[in-house]
C-alpha cells in the first residue's frame, strides 16, 4: 500500500529506462508546473444510472462515458471537461485524457492541470505515464495499491527547452500515427479470425464441410434409427454388466460378514426422448444426422455428467499445495492445467469422487455471458476435482467423438442456446438439468471423427495466425517503448543551438512559481460556487 521511495529516489535507481533524461536537460517537480486536484467524495445516495451529471470513477477514466451519474449538489471546481488529464489513484495508476462530456471528479481520481506556459501540455502528458508506472512498481501492497497526490506532485519531470519539447511531440505523433495504424490493422485481423473460426463451425455443423465425404460413403452409413438403437442396446448391456458386478460385490460383502460399507447400487439407466426442434431456431442438417440431447451421448460410467461441489463441501481451507489438482474456470478458459494450481489431499478427493474429472473428459464453464466455454482435460494430466463453477461431461467414446463435441459446444449455435436457457437467471449459470436440455447434432461416428480432424487442422492454421498477430502486437509495443526511450534521452530529434538552455527555463519556472505562491498568501479565498440538482448556482456563505 505504501510507496517506500520518493519519486526522485526511484529515478536515482536508474532501473526504469523511460525515466532517463538527456544530459542537457534539467528536471522540474510536477508541482512546479502543474496543479494536482483530488476528487471529491460525492454521496452515494445521489448516484443514479440515468439522471444527473456524469460521475467519473477510476474505472471510467479511459472511457468517454460513466457508469454512474450524480443528482446532488456539487462545486463547479470539480467539473471535468473533455481533454482534462486524469489519474486513477488506486490499482494501476493510469493517466488518461477525459474523452466524455462535462463530468464530476470523484474521489480516488485526480486532475492534473498545467499552470505554466513553459511546459508543452502534450509533452507533459507523454512524460506522465512512465513515472506513474514506476511508482506503481515500487508501491508495496497486500490488497489494492494507493497513490497519493503528494507523490504525483513530487514527480521529477524531464525539462528540455520549450522548442525541443514541441519537436519531440511532433516526431512522436508522426511515428505513433504510423504505429497505431499498423496496430489497428492487426487488431482488425484478430477479430476477423474470430469470425472465421465461427464460420468454420457453422459450416461444419450444417453438414457442409463433409458433404462430399457422405456422398462417397453413403453405402457404409447407418440410418439415424439404426445408430440410436445400437447406442441404446450398448448402454443397456453396459448397465446390465454394472448390475452383475454390483450383485457379485454385495455377495462378497455379505460373505465377509458385511464388513465395511455396502457397495452402492448403480444408478437406474435412463435414455431421454429425442428432442423436438420445431420451436428452436436450428439449421437444417443432413438426412444422415439427427438431433439429440447430451443424455444420449453420456458415458454409462457413474458420475459421467455433473458439476463441482457446493461451496460448503469444498472450502478454501481444504486447499493444499500438493495432492489432487482442482479445476477452476480460469483453467478451462486459458486451457492451462499446469500453472497456478490448487490441490486437495487424497482423502478429500476420495470424498468428492462424484466430482472427479478424468483425462479426456469435457470440462465446461458454468458461468459467463453466455457461459459454456468447453475444453478437453488433457490426457497427460492426473485425475482432478472440479470446483463449483465448472461442469464435466464424459461422452460415450464408442459412439461420440469428444473433439467433435468440444467444438460443437463452443459454437455460436450452442452458445445461443445457453444464453436462452440461462435467460432471467440472476447469475448466468448452467445447471446440470439445463445442460441436459441442449440440442446437439449427431452425425455418424466415423463422420464425427472426419469433421473433428478437419476442424482441428483449420483451427491450427487460425491459432498460428493468431500467435503471429500477438507477436507483431508485442513488437509494436516494444517499438513504442523504444521511441519513447529515444525521446527522453534526447536522441529522437536534432538539437537546435538557438534553443533556450534548459537551466534558464528552469530558473524562470521557479521564479514564477515563487511569485505565484507569494500572491496566493495575500489573496482572499473566494467562496465556493455550488450547483444544485436543478443546475442553478449557489454561493457558499452568500445570502439566499
Automatic annotation (TrEMBL):
GO BP, one annotated term: DNA restriction-modification system
Keywords in alphabetical order: Coiled coil, DNA-binding, Endonuclease, Hydrolase, Nuclease, Restriction system
Ranges for domain Type I restriction modification DNA specificity: 24-183, 403-468
Biased composition (Basic and acidic residues): 511-521
Region feature Disordered, mapped onto this chain: 511-544
Coiled coil location: 455-482
Amino acid composition bias (Basic residues), ranges on this chain: 522-536
Domain of life from the UniProt record: Bacteria
GO molecular function, one term: DNA binding
Family: Belongs to the type-I restriction system S methylase family.
Protein's name according to its UniProt entry: Restriction endonuclease subunit S
Amino acid at each position: 500500500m505504501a510507496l517506500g521511495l520518493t519519486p526522485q529516489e526511484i529515478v536515482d535507481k536508474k532501473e526504469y529506462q523511460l525515466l532517463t533524461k538527456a544530459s542537457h536537460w534539467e528536471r522540474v517537480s510536477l508541482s512546479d508546473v502543474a496543479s494536482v486536484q483530488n476528487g471529491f467524495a460525492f454521496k452515494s445516495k445521489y448516484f443514479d444510472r440515468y439522471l444527473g451529471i456524469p460521475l467519473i470513477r477510476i474505472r471510467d477514466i479511459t472511457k468517454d462515458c460513466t457508469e454512474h451519474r450524480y443528482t446532488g449538489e456539487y462545486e463547479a471546481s470539480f467539473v471535468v471537461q473533455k481533454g482534462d488529464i486524469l489519474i486513477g489513484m488506486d490499482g494501476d495508476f493510469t493517466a488518461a485524457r477525459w474523452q466524455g462530456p462535462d463530468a464530476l471528479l470523484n474521489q480516488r481520481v485526480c486532475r492534473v492541470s498545467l499552470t505554466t506556459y513553459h511546459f508543452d501540455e502534450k509533452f507533459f502528458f507523454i512524460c506522465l505515464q512512465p513515472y506513474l508506472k514506476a511508482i506503481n512498481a515500487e508501491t508495496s501492497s497486500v490488497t489494492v495499491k494507493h497513490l497519493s497526490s503528494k507523490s504525483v506532485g513530487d514527480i521529477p519531470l524531464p525539462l528540455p527547452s520549450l522548442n525541443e519539447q514541441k519537436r519531440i511531440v511532433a516526431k512522436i505523433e508522426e511515428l505513433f500515427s504510423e504505429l497505431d495504424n499498423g496496430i489497428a490493422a492487426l487488431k482488425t485481423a484478430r477479430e476477423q479470425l474470430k469470425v472465421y473460426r465461427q464460420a468454420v463451425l457453422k459450416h461444419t455443423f450444417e453438414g457442409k464441410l463433409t458433404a462430399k465425404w457422405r456422398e462417397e460413403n453413403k453405402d457404409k452409413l447407418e440410418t439415424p434409427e439404426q445408430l440410436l438403437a445400437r447406442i441404446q442396446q450398448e448402454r443397456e448391456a453396459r448397465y446390465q454388466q454394472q448390475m452383475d458386478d454390483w450383485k457379485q460385490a454385495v455377495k462378497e460383502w455379505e460373505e465377509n460378514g458385511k464388513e465395511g460399507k455396502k457397495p452402492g447400487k448403480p444408478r437406474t439407466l435412463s435414455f431421454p426422448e429425442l428432442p423436438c426442434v420445431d420451436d428452436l431456431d436450428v439449421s437444417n442438417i443432413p438426412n444422415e444426422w439427427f438431433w439429440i440431447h447430451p443424455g444420449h451421448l453420456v458415458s454409462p460410467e457413474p458420475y459421467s455428467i455433473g458439476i463441482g461441489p457446493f461451496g460448503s463441501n469444498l472450502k478454501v481451507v481444504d486447499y493444499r499445495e500438493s495432492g489432487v489438482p482442482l479445476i477452476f474456470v480460469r483453467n478451462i478458459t486459458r486451457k492451462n492445467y499446469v500453472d497456478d494450481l490448487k490441490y486437495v489431499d487424497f482423502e478429500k478427493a476420495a470424498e468428492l469422487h462424484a466430482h472427479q474429472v478424468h483425462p479426456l473428459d469435457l470440462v465446461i464453464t458454468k458461468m459467463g455471458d453466455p457461459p459454456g466455454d468447453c475444453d478437453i482435460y488433457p490426457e497427460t494430466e492426473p485425475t482432478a476435482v472440479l470446483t463449483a463453477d465448472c461442469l464435466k461431461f464424459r461422452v460415450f467414446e464408442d459412439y461420440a467423438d469428444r473433439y467433435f463435441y468440444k467444438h460443437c459446444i463452443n459454437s455460436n449455435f450452442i452458445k445461443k442456446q445457453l444464453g436462452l436457457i440461462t435467460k432471467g437467471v440472476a447469475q448466468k449459470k448452467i445447471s446440470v438439468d439445463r445442460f441436459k436440455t441442449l440440442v446437439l447434432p449427431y452425425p455418424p461416428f466415423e463422420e464425427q471423427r472426419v469433421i473433428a480432424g478437419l476442424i482441428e487442422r483449420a483451427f491450427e492454421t487460425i491459432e498460428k495466425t493468431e500467435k503471429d498477430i500477438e507477436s507483431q502486437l508485442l513488437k509494436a509495443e516494444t517499438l513504442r517503448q523504444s521511441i519513447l526511450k529515444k525521446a527522453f534521452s534526447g536522441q529522437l530529434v536534432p538539437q537546435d543551438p538557438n534553443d533556450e538552455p534548459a537551466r534558464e527555463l528552469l530558473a524562470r519556472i521557479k521564479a514564477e512559481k515563487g511569485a505565484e505562491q507569494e500572491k496566493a498568501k495575500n489573496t482572499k479565498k473566494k467562496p465556493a460556487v455550488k450547483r444544485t440538482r436543478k443546475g442553478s448556482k449557489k454561493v457558499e456563505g452568500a445570502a439566499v
